[in-house]
C-alpha cells in the first residue's frame, strides 16, 4: 500500500502549486502488471458559502521498486471549487469576509494485474489543511522557501495613495497574517476581511487605514473610483484619473436580402450592429516607481473589476496599453500608467 503521505511544498493560497508526496507500493512481484498509479482524493469544502466537493487526482508510477516517490499537485482541485465563488463589489459601508477552504487528503495505489484492477488501502493525513483565495507572483515564489505564509491581503505600497473625498465607498484590506508553520500544522486561520468606508469619513490630509497612510484631498471630477479583485484574493479600491474622451466600439455586420425577381425591385442591404460597448481612456496620474510597479503588476492584472459609473458599480474590463515607459532617472519627471476601461455590457 502507499506510504508516507506528506506535504512537500506550497502555500495557503490556492492559485499556486501545493504538492504532496507519497511512497508508492512496491508491485515488482505482480504478474502481468499493465499499469500502476497513485491516486489522491482531495475533499474540499467552504462551509461559509455552502461549497463542498471531492476530486480525484492521479500520477503514474514511473518504475517499480522500493521507495519510489510520487509527487501530486492538488492546486487544480482547489481552484476548481474556488472558481465557483462569486465576487461582488461592496455596495454599503462595513466589513466583508472571504471564505476559508478546508481540504482533507487521502492517497492509495491503483493497478491492473492479470487483467484485473486492484486498489490498496487508502492512507490519509489526519485533519484539514486550510486554504485562501489568491496567489503569489512567480517572483514571490522564486524568492521564498518550500512553503510561504500570508503576511498581508494587499500589495499596495505603505504610503502615497491619493483618495478624493467624494462621498463614495473606499474598500481596503484589513491586516492579516497566516504563517507557513501554522498552515503546515493545519492551524485554523482567521477569516480574511476587507472594510468599506465612505470617503466623507476621512479628513483632509494623511489618514491611516489598516497600517497604510493614504492622503485625502478635495473632490475632483477627474478621479474615478474602482473596486477590483487583487492578486491576494480580496476586493479593494483604487482611484484612477479619466481623460476627457469616451469612445463606443460596435461590431457591424452587413448583408443583402434577396427579394422576388421584378424589374423595379432590387436586393435590400441590411446592417446589424452589436457589441455596443463604451470605452474610457484612463491613467494612474504621476506616480512613484513603487506605485508604477503596483499599477502594472496588480491592478492591470486583475481578473474582475467594477467602476463607479452613473451612480452605480458596473463591471468593466481593464485593458493595459502594450508598453509603459519606466522612470527616467535623468529627469525629475514621474511616470504614469495608462490603460483603457471597457464596459462589460451594451448601452449606457
Order of SSEs? EEEEEHEEEEEHEEHEEEEEEHEEE
Number of strands: 21
How many domains?
Answer: 2
**Largest sheet data:** 6 strands, antiparallel
Our measurement of the CA-to-CA distance between the termini, rounded to an integer number of angstroms, reads: 63 Å
The shape is: globular
* Mean pLDDT across residues: 88
Structural class assignment: mainly beta
Number of helices: 4
Instruction: State the share of residues found in helices, binned by percent.
Output: under 10%
Stretches where pLDDT is under 50 for at least 5 consecutive residues are none
Using only CA atoms, what is the Rg? 27 Å
Binned strand content: over 45%
Account of the 3D structure:
By secondary structure, the chain is mainly beta. The chain has two domains: 3-132, Immunoglobulin-like, CATH 2.60.40; 149-343, no CATH class. Helices cover 8% and strands 47% of the residues. It has four helices and 21 strands. It has helices at 75-82, 138-142, 180-184, 289-299, and strands spanning 3-9, 19-23, 33-46, 51-60, 69-73, 94-97, 100-113, 116-119, 123-124, 129-132, 159-165, 169-173, 193-198, 205-209, 212-218, 223-229, 235-257, 268-283, 305-309, 312-320, 338-343. Strands 3, 4, 7, 8, 9 and 10 form a six-stranded antiparallel β-sheet that branches. It is globular and about 75 Å long. The protein starts with a strand and ends in a 5-residue tail after the last strand. The model has no long low-confidence stretch (mean pLDDT 88).
In short:
By secondary structure, this protein is mostly beta strands. The protein has four helices and 21 strands.
Amino acid at each position: 500500500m502507499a506510504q508516507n503521505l506528506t506535504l512537500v511544498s506550497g502555500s495557503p493560497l490556492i492559485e499556486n502549486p501545493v504538492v504532496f508526496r507519497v511512497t508508492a507500493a512496491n508491485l515488482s512481484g505482480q504478474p502481468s502488471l499493465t499499469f500502476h498509479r497513485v491516486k489522491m482524493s482531495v475533499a474540499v469544502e467552504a462551509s461559509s458559502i455552502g461549497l463542498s466537493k471531492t476530486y480525484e487526482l492521479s500520477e503514474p508510477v514511473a518504475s517499480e521498486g522500493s521507495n519510489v516517490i510520487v509527487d501530486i499537485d492538488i492546486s487544480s482541485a482547489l481552484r476548481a471549487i474556488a472558481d465557483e465563488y462569486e465576487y461582488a463589489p461592496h455596495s454599503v459601508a462595513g466589513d466583508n469576509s472571504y471564505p476559508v477552504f478546508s481540504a482533507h487528503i487521502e492517497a492509495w495505489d491503483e493497478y491492473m494485474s492479470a487483467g484485473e484492477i486492484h486498489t490498496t488501502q487508502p492512507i490519509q493525513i489526519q485533519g484539514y489543511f486550510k486554504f485562501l483565495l489568491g496567489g503569489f507572483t512567480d517572483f514571490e515564489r522564486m524568492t521564498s522557501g518550500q512553503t510561504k505564509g500570508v503576511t498581508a491581503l494587499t500589495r499596495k505600497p505603505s504610503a502615497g495613495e491619493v483618495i478624493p473625498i467624494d462621498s463614495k465607498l473606499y474598500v481596503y484590506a484589513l491586516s492579516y497574517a497566516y504563517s507557513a508553520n501554522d498552515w503546515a500544522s493545519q492551524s485554523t486561520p482567521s477569516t480574511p476581511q476587507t472594510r468599506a468606508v465612505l470617503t466623507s469619513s476621512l479628513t483632509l490630509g494623511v489618514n491611516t487605514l489598516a497600517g497604510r497612510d493614504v492622503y485625502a484631498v478635495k473632490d475632483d471630477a477627474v478621479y474615478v473610483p474602482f473596486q477590483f479583485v487583487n492578486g491576494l484574493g480580496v476586493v479593494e479600491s483604487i482611484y484612477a484619473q479619466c481623460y476627457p474622451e469616451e469612445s463606443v466600439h460596435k461590431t457591424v455586420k452587413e448583408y443583402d436580402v434577396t427579394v422576388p425577381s421584378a424589374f423595379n425591385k432590387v436586393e435590400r442591404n441590411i446592417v446589424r450592429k452589436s457589441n455596443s460597448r463604451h470605452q474610457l481612456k484612463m491613467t494612474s496620474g504621476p506616480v512613484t516607481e513603487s506605485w508604477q510597479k503596483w499599477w502594472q503588476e496588480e491592478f492591470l492584472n486583475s481578473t474582475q473589476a467594477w467602476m463607479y459609473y452613473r451612480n452605480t458599480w458596473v463591471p468593466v474590463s481593464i485593458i493595459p496599453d502594450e508598453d509603459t515607459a519606466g522612470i527616467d532617472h535623468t529627469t525629475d519627471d514621474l511616470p504614469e500608467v495608462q490603460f483603457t476601461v471597457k464596459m462589460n455590457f451594451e448601452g449606457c
